[in-house]
Amino acid sequence: MPRNQVSTRRTFLKTASAAVISGPVGLATAKEISKNDEIKWDREADVVVLGYGNAGSNAAIAAADADSSVIILEKMPEGGGSVCVSSGGFVVPTNKDDYYAFQKALYELSRSEWDPEILRVFCEESLKLGDYVKSLDPQVTLAIYGHAGYQNLPGADCVNKISPRNVPGKKGGERLFGIFQRAVEKRNIPVLLNTPAQQLIRCGNEVAGVVALENGKPINVKARKAVVIATGGFQCNPELMKRYVFGNPMGYLGGPSHTGDGLLMAQSMGADLWHMNSVSAPLGIQVPGVKAGLAMVTRRPAFIWVDQDGKRFVNEKKLDYHCSWMAVNQFDAIKHRYPRIPCYMIMDKTYLEGAPLISSGGSGYAINKEGYVWSKDNKKEIESGVIIEAPTIEELAKKLEIPNPATLVDTVNRWNDDLKTKGIDTEYGRTPTADPNQKAVFVGRDVKAWSAPIEEGPFYAVKLVPVMYHTMGGPRRSVKAECLNPYGEKIPRLYVAGELGSTWGLTYQGACANADAMIFGRIAGKEAAALTPWS
């Protein structure tokens, strides 16, 4: 490229970067100081960590173990973030080369941006995660609870999803975070709860600290070496969701603290962004009065999913759980609507007999933190209208306001006829039973019977929408977890880890978010601790 074109491009990028920093409403601006300024520092440490979840706690542990002083700022009344409401799983592969091939295929098939060096480090470090967790708590036992979600891809057989046992905590996520929390406490790392970080402090082009709110009052926290942002994603910020993610509205499964605070602060220093259109989202149900959604895991065979016109649109048992949102994320360019958001799960009475539609053993903020318990006989949800009941499919269609009720009747009749006369779903290839050679994605939660006629009334439906565990996007980072600008240059003394600019693109293998946060949280803490103090 001619020199004048290179110069023009760099000028354009710098102008665009400046526009991002000062542009759209809601973006933070960094507080500028100079080394000669007499600024009052209310608190200080070598490494200041923003966010007390998986990535933040592991960054703090690594920095402390490297003989640096650390302080953690957390906006919520307690730590845990997304890890506490997750299954507590992380992948420990059996072979790093197969694992690399598997993850590489996910990026390439979805045409997502990725960094081969970051992926290689991730795969190598994933092999050590079990030993690392045991080093923090020798009492823990680790169990395999599932395998790959995309079992047709090369290397998929190496994927083992692991979760902790024999340590305090009701659910897997609480147990995993408890291990990190006790390690933080053992190292006497100060944690300021109810203290949200609001603004980075910059000295020239370096990050020097952060402005936070403590007891409702602004404080200046000096970071002698670096700031690590580990504040999670932006799924609970409607403005940012509309800006970056196609196909709203969506609910959330993770905690309500994920409002993009760290994203905006990193942008104030000129951070580049990646993976902004990527989320992990199964389909689920929104219950009135409950903030978070509840994920739908299908356990019985007599059901189908239909769009707002009463038509099926996917093999409901073959799609990957974490990628389910992509099956409904379609815009109708003629009627100008999202005909599958919401969509509907259609069932007969056999699906609801003898067990709750949503298991209380699942993960997510609604179950783990809000304490919502689905009724064992489903009556509470039928009476509240969350489950819609009707004596016939035609009456059910009318209650769902499907424009032509006969369409849903025809859809169910075709489903029933296929299974009774042909033995297979001719529309989307759903089989009566699971592939006996397929490993369980969730051990104990997968079922052998996949398909059965929908013919025993009364009939039922629930409204389904995408419900997010987490967003993937945020500041682009280096293999050392350094926050990068649009030219690929590191922003001095700023590190990012966890959901904030995670490794993952459009297709996501379950249990890799916790693994990614553990690995790059530790890398961020270690690298930050290795710096020379700026003053």
Question: What attributes characterize this protein structure?
Answer:
disordered N terminus; single chain; 16 helices; alpha/beta; 535 residues; 20% strand
Q: What does this protein look like?
A:
The chain has 535 residues and is of the alpha/beta class. The protein has 16 helices and 23 strands. The strands form five sheets. Strands 1, 2, 3, 7, 8, 9, 10, 22 and 23 form a nine-stranded mixed sheet that branches. Strands 11, 14, 15, 16, 17, 18 and 19 form a seven-stranded mixed sheet that branches. A three-stranded antiparallel sheet has the order 4-6-5. A hairpin with a 2-residue loop joins β8 and β9. α2 packs parallel to α16 and α14 packs across α15. The protein is elongated and about 80 Å long. The two termini are 41 Å apart. 50% of the residues are buried.
Write the layout of secondary structure elements.
Elements: H1 3-22, E1 31-33, E2 43-50, H2 54-65, E3 70-73, H3 81-84, E4 90-91, H4 96-110, H5 116-126, H6 129-136, E5 141-146, E6 161-165, H7 172-186, E7 191-192, E8 197-203, E9 206-214, E10 217-229, H8 238-244, E11 251-252, H9 261-267, E12 273-274, E13 279-280, E14 283-285, E15 294-295, E16 303-306, H10 325-328, E17 343-348, H11 349-352, H12 365-368, H13 379-384, E18 387-390, H14 393-399, H15 405-422, E19 459-468, E20 470-471, E21 474-475, E22 482-484, E23 490-496, H16 512-529
Parallel strand pairs: 1-8, 2-3, 2-10, 3-7, 10-23, 11-19
Antiparallel strand pairs: 4-6, 5-6, 8-9, 9-10, 12-21, 13-20, 14-15, 14-19, 16-17, 17-19, 18-19, 22-23
